[in-house]
Amino acid sequence: MLVLETKDLSFSYGETPVLTNISFQLRQGSFAALIGPNGAGKSTLLKLLLGELLPTSGTIQVLGKDARSFRGWRRIGYVPQDGLARHADFPASAREIVQANLCAEIGLCRFPKQKHREQVQRALGLVGMEKYGKRLIGALSGGQRQRVLLARALVSSPDVMILDEPTSGMDQESAEDFYKLLSRLNMNRGLTILMVSHDVERICDHVSQVYCLEHNTMAGLTPEQVLQGTREHRHIPKEERNCICGYF
Ligand code: ADP
Fold first, then answer.
1. What is the pTM of this model?
2. What's the distance, CA 83 to chain centroid?
3. How far apart are CA 195 and CA 34, in angstroms?
4. Which residue puts its alpha carbon closest to atom 18 of ligand 1?
5. pLDDT single digits (tens) 35-74
6. Angle in degrees, 0-180, between the axes of helices 114-126 and 142-154, rounded to the nearest 10
7. Which strands make up the sheet holding 217-221, listed edge to edge?
8. 111 by DSSP, 3-state: which?
C-alpha cells in the first residue's frame, strides 16, 4: 500500500517555481531518506505532504486520500529540524512536551488521566527517555531533545513519521544512535519513515530507499546505488560535483 504519493506535483512561492512535475511514492513499511542540496525543495515537499502548503498543480495522496480532503493528520507524525533548540529556555519538562501532543484528547485546561500519563511514559520509553520525563528540556542534550520530539510525535501512534534533518547539530555518535532508533521503530513497530537528511553516506546503512531531489528531478535509488555514486565522485570536490548522489 502507498502511504504517500505525489503525481506531477508543482509548487511555486509566488512567481518562483520550486517544484515542477514531481512524482514520488512512499510504500507502507519503508524507511526512506530524502536527500538533495540546499534549496532543492525538500522542506517545501515535506510541507506539501503535511498539508501545510497547497500544490500549484498536480495531486498529493495521503494514506490513500486526496490531501485536500484528508482529515487524519494525527496519523502523520512530524519531527521538525532542531525543533526545541530555540525554546531550550522554556520551563517545560520532557513529559510536558510529549503530553502537549495529546491535548486534543485530554481537553483544554483539563488534567491528564492515568491512561494519558501511561501513553506519555510509553512514548518516552520507545525513544529510550523513560528516565528523563521530569527533566527540563533546557537540561537535555541536543540528541536527547530530538528524542523527546520524536516521542511527542509518537504519542499519537502515527502510521507515518516525517522528519526534517532530525540530526542536524548532533555529534556523529548521537546521530548514529538516532538512526538506529529509527531503524528499530521501522522494523519492530512497522512505522513508515520519511527523513530529510544531509548525512548521505551514513544513512545508507539504515534506510531501505533513498529519494534524491536535485535539478528539479526526483530519483528513487537504492542505498547501494547512492554509495556507489558517492564513491565514484569522491575525487571531485563536493561543490564541483554535478549532483549530490552521483546519479544525474
Ligand atoms: P531545501 O529544504 O531543499 O533546502 P526549501 O524547500 O527550503 O529547500 O527551499 C526551496 C526554495 O524555495 C529555495 O530557493 C528557498 O529560498 C525558497 N523558499 C523556501 N521557503 C520560501 C518561502 N516561504 N517564500 C519564498 N521562497 C521560499
1. 0.92
2. 12
3. 6
4. 13
5. 998 899 999 999 999 999 999 999 999 999 999 999 999 9
6. 130
7. 76-79, 160-164, 192-196, 31-35, 209-214, 217-221
8. coil
The label of the residue with cell 515542477 reads 20
Q: What is the arithmetic mean of pLDDT over 201-213?
A: 94
Report how far apart, in Å, the C-alpha atoms of 37 and of each of 26, 92, 171, 233 are.
21, 35, 21, 15
Among protein residues, the one with the nearest Cα to ligand 1's atom 20 is 44
The answer to whether 195 and 38 have CB atoms below 8 angstroms apart is no
* Distance, C-alpha 236 to centroid of its chain: 30
Tens-place pLDDT, residues 184-202: 999 999 999 999 999 988 9
pLDDT of residue 116: 85
* Statement: residue 131 has pLDDT above 80: yes
**Greatest Cα-to-Cα distance within the chain, rounded to the nearest angstrom:** 60
Cβ of 41 below 6 Å from ligand 1: yes
Cell 527533566 identifies what position? 135
Query: Would you say the CB of residue 91 lies under 6 angstroms from ligand 1?
Result: no
Rounded Cα–Cα distance for residues 45 and 11 (Å): 9
Q: Is the pLDDT of residue 238 over 70?
A: no
Task: State how far the Cα of 112 lies from the Cα of 116, in Å rounded to an integer.
Answer: 6
> 218: Cβ below 6 Å to ligand 1?
no
Q: Is the distance from the beta carbon of residue 191 to the nearest atom of ligand 1 less than 6 Å?
A: no
